[in-house]
Design brief:
It is a single chain. By secondary structure, this protein is α+β, with helices and mostly antiparallel strands. The protein has a single domain, classed as Gcn5-related N-acetyltransferase (GNAT) (Aminopeptidase). The chain has a 7-stranded mixed beta sheet with strand order 1-2-3-4-5-7-6, with helices on both faces. β4, α4 and β5 form a beta-alpha-beta unit. It starts with a strand and ends in a 9-residue tail after the last strand.
Length: 179
Amino acid sequence: MTEPTIRPLDAGDLVAYRSLRLRGLAEHPEAFTSSASEEAARPADALAKRLAADPSRPHDAVFGAFDGATLVGLCGVDVDMREKVRHKGHVFGLYVPAEQAGRRVGGALMDRVIGHARAAGLRQLVLTVTADNAPARRVYERAGFGVCGREPQAVRIGDRAYDKLAMILFLPAARAPRG
């Protein structure tokens, strides 16, 4: 098995992105804040906007993992460009289908997100994960994230509530070249 190719998604990936995202939302509703029905109702142009380059948000990206031409994993990062918080990125939407287990697709996506954040000069990455989602937690912990908080009953599906853990990864500041 070859390692997946990781690259930023663009408008040409819209159909594959939407399909894989909807699959993740349907298979693991507790893992995402958006529901499959809400996402399915979103106009395609709203999703296309997420994949398009935006000069006002230069560090936002959605990355895809590809096995050949097949999209097999997703993970995004967005950066709020307001002055006081533009030092950090928010990781969102990590999804890798079960049949990709053991291929380190999630780890490769996180490596790319972290590299992107470092190149953008970010100082930290933050995310939330469903507390009992052990596979996702392992991916994040292996990437260096640590738990920094817990929100009880953060997501509710019918009568069932799920806690979310806040996680953070501090990135070292870039060093000035010695001269």
